[in-house]
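Let's study my pick:
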Amino acid sequence: MPPFINKYWPYLLLLLFAIPLFGMNVHSYHQWGDDYAQYIKEAQNIAAGRPYYQSNYVFNPLNTIYGPPLYPPGFPLLLSPIILYWGLNIKAMLYLITLFLAILLFVLYSYFRKSSSAPTAVCLSVIVVYCSYIIDFKQHVLSDIPCLLCVSIYLNLRKGKELNATRIIFLACTAAMAILIRSQAILLLAAEGLWLAIDVYKRIVAGRFSPAALSPLLIIFFSAGIYFVVNKLVFHTPQDAVNYYKNFYTWHTDYAGIIYTDTLYFITLIKDIFQHSSHGFISQALVSVMSYAGLVSGILGFILVIRKRILMEDLFFMLMCLLIIITPVHEGLRFFLPAVPLYILYCKEGIYRLLKKTTQVRPYKIAILLTVIYLALGHEDYLRAAKVPDYIWSPNTRNDTVAFQYLIDHTGKDDIILFAKPRALTLYTNKRAMVIAYTASLDVAKKQIDSMHIKYLLWRLEVSEPFFKNYLRYSHSAVDSYKINDFYTLYKLR
């Protein structure tokens, strides 16, 4: 084998796995939903030099489970160059998401290589990135994959090296960027704080404390400083989303029930890491076995690791688990995504420990075999991701374009429109839009609508919830209506 290939074969192999990602779930349209629309709207504001929070989305304080009034500026900041040069180009944004995922392959290899052989590190990286959930999720312009990348960079920089000044600065910048992209990444600093307390205590007890042990405190301090400057000074907003997220934990009273339900839900999430959409009986059986094997090996590996030692990354993993268990919001694997590489590492430890007593096969050969099986079982998902679906459930169809143009032409600048996906409506029409208070009673919703003098309600087939029609029947408030097309009807409320 030529010296170049012999030296760089892991990177060449990772490059081969990175290339197909650019042909999977990269479309010129976006599915319905409107988290993405708020990110893009904020990115448009940054690109245009406007206050980034001015999106025309009217936050409804009575709807405690809908989207926040604004998102952190990190991900919109990443999107803003795309907006500046290509405008509202969904495909270009999805290529950016794919680029982050491709880079993640190499970051994870570097991270896994610190505790595994080169073949095993390649296999673990591929398993994470080619998780069917992630391949499917990459068709959304959302902050989860960029956050996963930043957290992985942080864990890679943090692992197994002394904290010199340069490393502390890089860690602080990476942590701040991760938090600016997704607020949940603040658990990195919480884990650093816990690690600092544990390490200092152990050093004091052992009589070998030194000021160098306080290095994690510098990471926390500088990260918080960078976050404050960017979030509070550069991108100052007159409101924040703290109360919105606080509602997650205050509008429920049965906390024991929540913890029980979320623990069962968390187990399902772990199994979802290994799930593929296979249709054959044998394939489904193998996927089921793989999911349960992943659950058992991961738990076993985690126990084995923390019995031997507890590092900052283990504390971060535990905090991520705790976040899922105490948060009564079920959004799938996306909330747990930053911890998936750690869980895969625990799986490796558990599998190696189990097989060490039963076989003499080299560990890297086991890793290769399991990776081949994992990818083979996921081939249907990968092929589906490379095709354009027969049916497109998207706000980018002709019916939607016609309806949005009608709203632009026939509603006033200051009118508020009630819609099931208000942030998508503001993105495509620049109109003020709000979701109806469907978590409240019909009477409460009517009082709010009347007090705000809301003029329009927009109904969209296959998108609007029944609560909208129930409200119209209950309130008898529609004084007029206009059927824009077979999908859209605009109701005038006053």
User: Anything to note?
Assistant: The beta strands are 416-418, 432-434, 456-460, 480-483, 488-492.
